[in-house]
Design brief:
Number of domains: 2
Helix content: 25-40%
Number of strands: 11
Strand content: 25-35%
Order of helices and strands: EEEHEHEHEHEEEEHEH
CATH architecture of the largest domain: 3-Layer(aba) Sandwich
Radius of gyration: 22 Å
Number of helices: 6
Distance between the termini: 53 Å
Structural class: alpha/beta
CATH class of the largest domain: Alpha Beta
Length: 258
């Protein structure tokens, strides 16, 4: 069984992101890199952990981690190797931050490279922690001509077929299809297991190939990046039971949540 897991290098979720200076004659379209810690997107960690679980359950197989970006993305590929991937591929592209390319460009580059890669299962996180586009996995599968299921919480394999469980409007839907197939991982699928020092050292000996990405023209353009507006200050309506009518009025007429 050949499993390919696509992973993305993103700013750590605890990092305070700051907008970079504006370009000449335009608005700012990038973030400041100084002081930003990068890591693997959390949903991609879940997808990789599920690939490792399936391989261990089958007793055989190969897991290949793939990432698109600059040479800096080798860092998360080495992490993927330490977490259980057998090999890694860097698709080199001019995307040091990860927001320079739109979803179609990323999916097209992945599909172009994966056409030459034998695979039975193709895994993604449900969305990337930076742009939260939630589209690359589905588009890549479409370009490859294989079925895909999003937001998967359980995977079952049997006789060349996959059974994916995912949440739809508060209920669990089960989709069964032939392999090869793709899916995007949701929380609850499996808990990521972080590597030991021994696994990190062993990962340095594993294979990591570099391929130049084939990028189509962009389908979208980032016009500007802006920080979210500041939160409005809270308002004190009183204390004790006497404040309840005023609180209810504010919730009903101002916040409109009642």
């Amino acid at each position: 069984m050949n499993i390919v897991v696509c992973v993305k290098r993103v700013p750590h979720t605890a990092t305070k992101v700051r907008i970079g200076p504006p370009e000449a004659g335009s608005r700012p379209r990038a973030i400041q890199l100084q002081g930003v810690e990068f890591t693997m997107s959390p949903y991609d960690e879940i997808a990789l952990a599920e690939a490792v679980r399936l391989k261990e359950a089958a007793g055989a197989g190969t897991i290949t981690a793939v990432s698109l970006g600059t040479d800096d993305a080798q860092q998360i590929l080495r992490t993927a190797l330490a977490m259980g991937a057998d090999a890694a591929i860097l698709l080199r592209a001019p995307a040091p931050i990860g927001l320079e390319l739109d979803g179609f460009q990323v999916a097209s580059a992945l599909a172009s490279a994966l056409k030459e890669q034998p695979l039975d299962l193709l895994f993604f996180g449900r969305l990337a922690a930076d742009d939260q586009g939630s589209q690359v996995g589905t588009i890549t599968a479409r370009l490859l001509g294989i079925p895909s299921v999003a937001d998967v919480t359980r995977v079952e394999l049997e006789s060349g077929r996959a059974r994916f469980h995912h949440l739809v409007d508060g209920r669990v839907e089960v989709v069964e299809c032939r392999l090869p197939a793709a899916m995007t991982a949701q929380k609850g699928l499996v808990e990521p297991r972080y590597p030991s020092i021994k696994q990190i050292m062993t990962a340095k000996q594993k294979r990591l190939d570099t391929i130049e990405a084939r990028l189509p023209a962009p389908a979208l353009e980032v016009v500007a990046l802006e920080p979210p507006p500041p939160r409005k200050p809270g308002r004190f309506v009183g204390t004790g039971p006497e404040a309840v009518p005023e609180l209810l009025k504010a919730l009903r007429e101002e916040a409109k949540v009642l």
